[in-house]
Amino acid sequence: MKISPFKVEIWMNEHENDGIYNLTESCVSPLKMGELLELLDIKEKYLSDLLDMKLDYGDINGSDELKKQICQLYETAEPCNIAIAQGAINANEMTIMELIEPNDEMITFTPGYQQVSSLAESLGAKVIELELKEEKGWQVDFDELEKAITDKTKVICVTLPNNPTGTMLSTQACVRLIEIAERHDLYLFVDEVYRSLYADRFCYQGSLFDLYDKAIITSGLSKSFGLPGLRLGWIVGPKAFIDRIIYRRDYHIISISKMNDVLAVEVLKQKEKILSRNRDICLKNRAYLEEWIKHERHITNSFTSGTTQLIRYDMKIPSEELSLRVQKEAGIFFVPGSCFDCEYHLRLGGGIDPVIFQNGLNVFSNWLRQFD
Ligand SMILES: Cc1ncc(COP(=O)(O)O)c(C=O)c1O
After folding, report:
1. Residues 231 and 83 in one domain
2. The pLDDT value given to residue 243
3. Tens digits of residue pLDDT in 31-67
4. Residues 6 or more apart from 129 whose CB is under 8 A from it?
């Protein structure tokens, strides 16, 4: 089974630690363990429970309490709809491996998170990538989507909010998407790992799980919750599909870390504390970006509602070359648009520590002056 190199991950692995200002990170700024325990007011209890914890595999399928807490993020989910994974990446992997068979067709969108399409291709699927167009605000073109469906299409795959474009859908657009999937009896596979941060009244804030009975959702604590170090993800889907995932799961992960299961329960019980901290960070950065860009003549942005933005620059320098230069000369780390097959763009993370975000953008502005 041959698989294409995962461009964004390779770039991150090679260059992430070299910059002073990481302006590209897609997670909301992670808390330190001590800060998290204090925010949740569980420091003493969690630490003493840890000392007493037997380091066995724990609940193989994740604890009942964890599944119960995850259900609270959805209106209609029950524990039988949940499978626990090691991060959203493992949730995506198991979903695709269970769903896709050779010669299936899968429709997805580009620029996007490469994992799902490359993995499906490696399993022998034909992947049709529809372009999200910047001039249309990185939105889905539903006429194009309809035209791409054939009798071999099994699933429409979408990331909401999208990485890297930040695309979200209005309620009307969600209804249209579901109507198309339903008419053709297709699965709708939605990666919602960035869900829940913005209160944008034009965008649907809920989960597509609650709107369609063939929706399969992946999510986790890495992005909106800003806790990627917990490596905690999940799949929410129809019971019959989750039953199949539970069989498959034994081959992939056995169980998640018992320590993280316990901590994730506490995080989800008090989710509003963390989400409101993270929302504040994103809104602060958003306001700064809106002002900054007014004075920055080389950069434009479509301002979608998600956390990551794919900003455009007007210099005719390939994005990889530009990213390497700005890192070497100004200490700023970006993922280049080339990692998403979208030249003359850079991915900007909207959940970064606001001090780094603001200082980094100011340093970037100074660096850009050479192109005036
Ligand atoms: C859309 C999307 N899905 C999944 C993942 C993986 O997330 P996790 O850290 O939870 O495995 C990422 C990470 O960048 C992502 O952008």
Report:
1. yes
2. 98
3. 999 999 999 999 999 999 999 999 999 999 999 999 9
4. 108, 109, 110, 112, 117
Indicate which residue's Cα is closest to atom 7 of ligand 1: 88
pTM of the entire structure?
0.97
Six token digits for residue 105: 């067709």
Burial class of residue 286 in the structure, from the number of CB atoms within 10 Å of its CB (0-12 exposed, 13-18 middle, 19+ buried)? middle
What is the span of the domain harbouring residue 162? 56-271
Q: Distance between CA atoms of 265 and 294, rounded to whole angstroms?
A: 43
Q: Which residue's CA is the nearest one to ligand 1's atom 6?
A: 89
Say what the pLDDT of residue 220 is. 98
Mutate which of 119, 219, 223 for ligand 1? The one with the most ligand atoms within 8 Å of its CB, which is: 223
**Rounded to the nearest whole angstrom, what is the distance from the C-alpha of residue 129 to the centroid of ligand 1?**
19
Query: Which of 90, 163, 192 to probe ligand 1 with, by most ligand atoms within 8 A of CB?
Result: 163
85/163 same-domain check: yes
**Are residues 265 and 331 both part of a single domain?**
no
Residue nearest to atom 16 of ligand 1 (CA): 163
**pLDDT range class, residue 322, cuts 50, 70, 90:** very high
Cα angle: 210, vertex 99, 67; to 5 degrees = 45
